[in-house]
Amino acid sequence: MPSRLAAQFQVLFLALIAMLPAGTAMAGPHDATFKSFLEDTVTPAARKAGVSGATLQRELKGLSPDTSLPGLVGPGGKGAPPKINFQAEFRAPANYFKESAFNALAASGRRLIQKHERTLAALEKQYGVPGRIVVAIWARESGYGGAKIPHDAIRVLATRAFMGERPDYFLGELVAALQILERGDISRSGMKSSWGGALGQPQFMPSSFLKYAVDFDGDGHRNIWGSEADTLASIAHYLSAHGWVRGRDWGYEAVIPDNVSCTREGPDMRQPVAKWVAEGVTRANGKTFPDFELSRPGNILMPAGRYGPAFIATENFYVIKEYNESDVYALFIGHLADRYGSNAGFLAPWKPTRDTTRGAVRTLQQALEAKGYDVGGTDGLIGYKTRRSIGKDQEAGGYFATCWVG
After folding, report:
1. Burial of 98 (C-beta count, 10 Å sphere; 0-12/13-18/19+)
2. Per the database record, which ranges form the Transglycosylase SLT domain (predicted)?
3. Among candidates 209, 206, 268, which has minimal Cα distance to 59?
4. Extents of the domains making up the chain
5. What does pTM read for this prediction?
6. Does domain 32-81+148-229 fall into CATH 1.10.8.350?
7. Which residues pair with 199 in a beta bridge?
C-alpha cells in the first residue's frame, strides 16, 4: 500500500511540475534574491535601453535561476572563480585537433560550399571574407547548424548576470537579448542559446546579434536560428567589421629554427614575412611564401610552444580570434578552411602534453607576474603573452625555451 501511495504522489507531483510556466523551476535558495535582482537591476537597465514594460512583464514573469549551469560562483558574482576548463579551447592544444573531426567536417563542408556557392560568392564580394572561412566558423560553432542549442537564452543570461563570474557583462547581454525580443526578430520560444548564452547557428552573443546579424534572405527577420543565408551573412559581416584584410589568408604552417626563439611569438612582434625568411623561417610544406606576402607583416604563432606545429600568421588570424579569444579556436578555423580544398593535416606533430586547469594556469601566471613578466592578465588562459613569458623565464634559468607549461 505505501508503494502505491508513493507512486500516486509521484504522478501528481510530476503533473504539477508540468503545469508550471516555461522557464520556471521548483523553489530554490536564491529565488527571492533573484526576483529582487530582476525587479531592481534588470528592469531599470532594460527600460533605459528601450525595452517596453509589456515585454519585460511577458519575458521575466516567473523566471527562476538555472543553477545547473557550469561556471557559476554565487549571487553578485561573489565567490571563488572556477578552476575547471569548461570550454574545449582552454585545454591542451593536441586534444583539440582530432583527425576524425576534421575529416567529417571537411567532407560535409565541401558539399555545403557547393550548395551555397552563389551566396558565398556574393558575401565575399560584399564583405571580402572567403567563403571557406565563413563555412569553417559555421562548422565549429554549430556543426553547420546541426548541433543542439537547447537552452532558454533569457534564463541563461539572467542566471549568469545574477550569479556568474562576470555579472556586469551578462547584465548587458541580457538587456541586449530583451531588445532582440522587443524588435521581433525571433520569439522567446525560438531564442535558443548555449549554456554560455550564445545564440543560434553562429553562436553570437546578443550584443553581437544587434550589431552584426544580417537579414540576407530578405524575409524581414535576422534569423540566425533557422536561416542558413542569414547565418552565413552574419558571420561574414562580423569578420569584415572586425577588420578582415581582403586578399590575405590567415597564415601558413612554418618551421621555426632553434635560433629564432619562441619568445618572439605574438602579433605585437610582427615584421615583414621576408625578414622571417631571412632568419631561416621556411614553410612546412617546402614551398616558398607567396611573393605578395613577403613585404606584408606576419608574426610567429606557436599555440603549443615547441610541442606542436608553428605558423606565420597574418592579421586575419587575429580577426578570427575576435570571434573567440583562443589561439587554438582560430587555428581550428583556418586549418579546417584549408582542408575544404586539400584534406591534409598538419605537417608537424602535436607532441603529448598534459591538460591543466584554469586555476593552475592562473597560479602560474601570478607567479610569472610577480617576477615582472607580462602574461596578459591572470585569466587562466595560455595565450601568447603567457607562452612567451614562460619561455623567457626558461631562458633566464639557463634552459632552452619551449614556451609551454611543464
Report:
1. exposed
2. 34-338
3. 206
4. 32-81+148-229
5. 0.87
6. yes
7. 193, 204
